[in-house]
Amino acid sequence: MNDSKPVVLVTGASKGIGLGIARVFADKGYRVAIAARHLEQAQAAADSLETEALGLAADVTDRASLEAAVNAVQAKFGQLDVLCANAGIFPSADLETMTEDDWDLVINTNLKGMFNTVQAALPVLKASQCGRIVVTSSITGPVTGFPGWSHYGASKAGQLGFVRTASIELAKYGITVNAVMPGNIITEGLEGMGEDYLRQMAASIPLKRLGRVEDIGHAAVFFASPEASYITGQTLIVDGGQILPESLEAVG
């Protein structure tokens, strides 16, 4: 890494978990590039950070737009040290009525989009003295299931398979690859469900609260830190203990 402040690129970071990740990196002294499908939203998010930041338009299903975004990061900051592959969607569709287009949209965004993002960033990450890749997966799919999310669960479980092999292949460049697996995190989407819904969800979690987007950000920053330099191919569940109880009676 150069003597200047390290640089992180976070995809899907104009709001929600992605913006929370970006804020924590900014608070830790990183220079931050925010990528989102809409430039205005990406730039507004970048402007909200108390660090040198850049907003970029990029669609993870469009390889050319990702390559352009990485080139813009290189032109602006001269380096890229951390990639947070966070962009994802979670539309609901029951298996019996799910269309092939429904399936393809989620898989192409969440799973193939992660692949596109990592490949686009690799040439610049390889030049860093301590490259890091952090994938935002989920407990849904790898550990739990939820009706309407069979395509989402498949995409998130697939990400972990990618992480395990990519970590082996990229170790020769000193790049680590790890994944954060969020549970129920308060985002704009969840807040729109209303207070009763939020209280019901929190009641099933041992810590009796939903997670904050910053909770995921802190996990990502740990994986990016020098203290995590000997950790690769691993996952970290951040869910307040949600997956632990056998039943609601165990929560108390």
From TrEMBL:
SMART domains per record: PKS_KR
GO biological process: fatty acid elongation
Positions of the Ketoreductase domain: 6-184
Coiled-coil residue windows: 32-59
Keywords carried by this UniProt record: Coiled coil
InterPro entries, sorted: KR_dom, NAD(P)-bd_dom_sf, SDR_fam
GO molecular function terms listed in the Swiss-Prot or TrEMBL record: oxidoreductase activity, acting on the CH-OH group of donors, NAD or NADP as acceptor
Pfam families xrefs: adh_short_C2
NCBIfam families: PRK05653.2-2 (NF004202), PRK12826.1-4 (NF009468)
Family recorded in the similarity comment: Belongs to the short-chain dehydrogenases/reductases (SDR) family.
Name of the protein in its database record: 3-oxoacyl-[acyl-carrier protein] reductase
Native organism: Marinobacterium iners DSM 11526
